[in-house]
Amino acid sequence: MTKEAMVAGIPQMGYGTWNRSADEAHQGVIWALEAGCRHIDTAQGYGNEQDVARGIKDAGVARNEIFITTKVKPDNYGPGAVMPSVRESLEKLRVDQVDLLLLHWPSPHNKYPLADYLGQFAEVFDAGLARQIGVSNFTKALIDESIHLLGSRTITTNQVECHVYMQNRPIIDYCEKLGIAVTAYSPLARGAVVGDLVLEEIGKARGATSDQIALAFLIAKGHVVIPSSSKRGRIMQNFEARKITLTLAENKRIEGLEKGMRLVNGDWCPVWDV
């Protein structure tokens, strides 16, 4: 693994592959690895695990230098379904073990009991198919229940939407209190930060873009960030954001951009903490 900042054993700057088609995921992974990124985030639900594997292979970076995250989709939470789905993911990713395995969502509308699919998830971890485990889009109540059900097993991270316009303090503060790392998805608010006047002004003195300042803010908070792009220049630019150090005053200004702009809020979501 290259010497990058780590959070709970996870490289702090990753490359996200959500909404990336087969070719985009393949090429994006190559470009991210060329930029020096060593954390690749995918999921069963993205339908591109095999393309991520192709990108890793074609980039020629050794497996032991890359941190791979994937996620179990709720469709695979049924009785006896979690383990086979993870084995299929490993086959697609061409690995024997992922570095981090997440439950992608709480079961929508509580179709499957948490105790049932979390129990299967624990079996996957105990079988050595994942080095670390975590959750995504879990609320405080679900985190508490999961900790109880997992016993001595550790929840490494909760991956949640987080960006300058929706800093998600209730769940983030709770995770931090429990020692659970936060992984911020949609850290650029799906491009909404581009051209933000406050971010541009802060970036101007550093020759940095509004995107880079938005990422630097989340990094300063100690979050793992997984920005995504299909453009080589933007992927390189995002990765360079880790070198930016903001002042306390600048961080305070950026905190003031909060406006509760939640981008992910469908009927499959849990009742969010507020």
Automatic annotation (TrEMBL):
NADP-dependent oxidoreductase domain sequence ranges: 12-257
UniProt xrefs under InterPro entries: AKR (IPR020471), Aldo/ket_reductase_CS (IPR018170), NAD(P)_OxRdtase_dom_sf (IPR036812), NADP_OxRdtase_dom (IPR023210)
Catalytic residues in the record: 46
Site label Lowers pKa of active site Tyr, positions: 71
GO biological process: methylglyoxal catabolic process
Keyword Electron transport: no
One GO MF term attached to the UniProt entry: methylglyoxal reductase (NADPH) (acetol producing) activity
Pfam families: Aldo_ket_red
Residue ranges the record marks as coiled coil: none
Keywords, ordered alphabetically: NADP, Oxidoreductase
Keyword Iron-sulfur set for record: no
Positions of substrate binding: 104
Family membership: Belongs to the aldo/keto reductase family.
Name of protein: Aldo/keto reductase
The organism of origin for this protein: Rhizobium sophorae
